[in-house]
Design brief:
Largest sheet: none
Helix content: over 70%
Number of strands: 0
Radius of gyration: 13 Å
Shape: elongated
Order of helices and strands: HHHHH
Distance between the termini: 39 Å
Structural class: mainly alpha
Length: about 70
């Protein structure tokens, strides 16, 4: 039912929400990337960075540099 309604799987939706929260924190806080990864529910910084780059198309640090 969720997949039909949201047009995505529950796991993909959760990752999307976590990455959206991470984007906000990357731009609006002075937290480290490791701290942001932890606060957004990712296992570790490396996993977060790989997933972020795969989804957004750039590393978290490149995202910060481009958006600021």
């Amino acid at each position: 039912i969720f997949k039909k309604t949201a047009n995505t799987t529950p796991a993909e939706y959760i990752i999307s929400v976590r990455l959206s929260n991470a984007k906000v924190l990357l731009l609006e806080s002075d937290l480290t990337i490791a701290q942001i990864a932890e606060r957004c529910g990712f296992r570790d910084q490396m996993y977060f960075s790989r997933l972020f780059k795969k989804t957004v198309g750039m590393s978290p640090l490149a995202y910060i540099r481009q958006c600021k």
